[in-house]
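Protocol step 4 of 6: record predicted structures for both targets in the notebook before any analysis. Target 1:
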Amino acid sequence: MTTTDADTSGSATTAAVCHGAPADDTPAAEHGHATHGYSKQKDAHIKRLRRIEGQIRGLQRMLEEDVYCIDILTQVSASTKGLQSFGLQLLEEHLRHCVADAAVRGPEAIDAKVQEATKAIERMLRT
């Protein structure tokens, strides 16, 4: 099972879904992996994203209410930090779950997952 992501240059890249399945079209369940690394924390992640969503809506309200620029920038910073923190947590869960699973499957699987994680880190650092 694969997903297609657009990188910052606009080209499409294909990456294995984070449940340990190889980058082919074989269903994850056939490989014995039907969960993502974030599955155990899914409810907490959703709650966190809703809080970030509220911060973004707050930014919209601040503009509508003509709030001082610096106060809006402070809120932008808080929202950005929230998303970065969420992304790092998700990356850690990916490393613990998906990369650890790849270690069991062998060197090629490890290399693929490390490369995938490295590209994700590069994307996060560009923002």
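Target 2:
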Amino acid sequence: MRKMRKLLVAGALVVASGTGCAARGDAPAVPRTASGSLEQLARTAGCRPDIQTDAAELRQADCGTGDGRYVLATFATDRGQAEWLDAADDYGGTYLVGRGWIAVGADRTVTQLRGRLGGTVERSSSHHSGRSGGGGREEGPEGHGGHH
């Protein structure tokens, strides 16, 4: 299972390697953090999900095209989500995190998604383990950073 998760994370991060950084002034207003199934979240994000993984503990889909491409993943448990994010942190990237879901893509794409899905933006440096130092976190509208 751990090996499969690392492969899925690596695949998601290939998508996230697109270019583009949004200036702080470009950030849209942040709605309440979305919840629901992968399909419901995709619909809220304006995506027709291309399901890549459909397992009991993890569902993952590709969304968007070109530089606006991202991966949306939902998790059956908080622990599964935390483990996925910890494994992904080793690769670096920008993540939009909500309760039970994560979107990963280019910085600009994740910033735009936050305007539809809410959540917390987390950035990590590549080859950095853990989330202390080197990474960054923007708090969501609920007034707290991180995930549950």
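Step 5 preliminary note on target 2. Residues 77 and 100 are 7 Å apart (CA to CA). The radius of gyration is 14 Å.
Proceed to step 6 after PI sign-off.
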